[in-house]
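Q: I'm writing up a methods section and want to include an example of the input and output format. Could you take the sequence below and give the corresponding predicted structure tokens, formatted cleanly so I can copy it straight into the document?
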Amino acid sequence: MDKRAELRRTRRGKRINRIVVFELRNHREKRFDNRRQSKIPPSVKANREMELRILAEMAKIIPISEIRDESCGGNTKKNGRGISPVTVGQEWFRTQASLIAPVVEVDYFDTGKYRDQLGLVKDNKDKSKQTPETHANDAIALASTFFIQYKSFHTANSHGHRWVGECVVTASPFIVVTRPKLFRRKLHQENYAKGGILKRQGGTITPFGFRSGDYVQTTYKGLIVRGWVGGFSNTNKTKNVSIYDHNWSRIGQFNPTNIKLIRRSTRLCVVA
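A: Here is the clean output for your methods example:
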């Protein structure tokens, strides 16, 4: 019954047109006002929590005197006028990050100006590419605003703007950090197999001594394969462990006796 109610609420939410007057919307009125908590969407919060965790780990290695954060824009008109969930998550992140170091907001209109000054290139065509041009150059430009500024000047004969300060960009390693796409369990499903049997879904413990998210190593046709445990099969015919890459694409299924544990799960996938 709970699952049916959940699916029904999802279908009802798709019909709501928040642009029209409340009395003309196609849903019943709320019985009481229960919208008093200022929460952020779970997906946005999970992304921000991962960024905050990485920032906290970096603070243990190198001293951080200041944090520069780019303003991500403002309102959205998709469901009426209001602030976007991304902006709400950003404000929450700044509050938490300020406990590590002071946070300075940088206008997103200025990011391209600093990026061009440093001679960096940005690739906007394909965000799925894991390259510095797609994901890292903007962060380098934001950090450079601490060292260089585009300031106005006035003299007896002229006035305008000029660059003040100096920042030299040097080569550095590019590291991709992602989360393993795991879920604990799914107790109820909509579709039953023959005989009224529900297929097992989820779970982080395997019967072979590994856990989902563990970094492991195996061999395949003489090649060394490394990845993260993401599932298993344990039947009378097959006993395999599924290994995934950092993008959580399955590399393959391997015999658990040929798998060696490298590191227990840290809930992060890190690839240089």
